[in-house]
Amino acid sequence: MKEEIDVFQNMFVPKHEILEEDEKLILLKKLNATEKQLPKIKTSDPAIKAIAAKKGDVVRITRNSRIAGKALYYRVVV
């Protein structure tokens, strides 16, 4: 039997969150962009699997930064 591994227990894996539909629309309007213009992340990514994101979802990735404290990145799941 294959044991599930929690990828978020690793200190090098940043926090991943699926945006709600209204958050996604606000983000795209703020960036004056479309989903196709966002960087992409595959459904096969272990973190994407762990949060059960599906194609078309926009994911906010929060990384720790020595300069900024926290840095936000957005990816669309493909």
Structure characterization notes:
This protein has 2 helices and 4 strands; from the N terminus they run E-H-E-H-E-E. With 78 residues, it is of the alpha+beta class. It has one domain: RPB5-like RNA polymerase subunit (Eukaryotic RPB6 RNA polymerase subunit), CATH 3.90.940. It has a 4-stranded mixed β-sheet, with no helix packed on it. Strand 3 and strand 4 (69-77) form a beta hairpin. The mean pLDDT is 92.
Concise synopsis of the structure shown:
This protein has 78 residues and is an alpha+beta fold.
Notable characteristics:
78 residues, alpha+beta, Eukaryotic RPB6 RNA polymerase subunit, four-stranded mixed sheet, 21% helix, 29% strand
Which band does the percent of strand residues land in? Answer: 25-35%
In this structure, how is the largest beta sheet organized?
A: 4 strands, mixed
CATH H-level superfamily: RPB5-like RNA polymerase subunit
The shape, in one word, is globular
**Architecture per CATH nomenclature, i.e. the level-2 architecture:** Alpha-Beta Complex
| Sheet with the most strands: spatial strand order | 1-3-4-2
For the terminal residues, how far apart are their CA atoms? 29 Å
**Annotated CATH topology:** Eukaryotic RPB6 RNA polymerase subunit
Radius of gyration: 14 Å
Number of DSSP strand runs = 4
Give the structural class: alpha+beta
Mean pLDDT: 92
The tally of domains stands at 1
Helix content: 10-25%
List the helices and strands in order. Answer: EHEHEE
CATH class: Alpha Beta
Uncertain residue segments:
none
Number of helices: 2
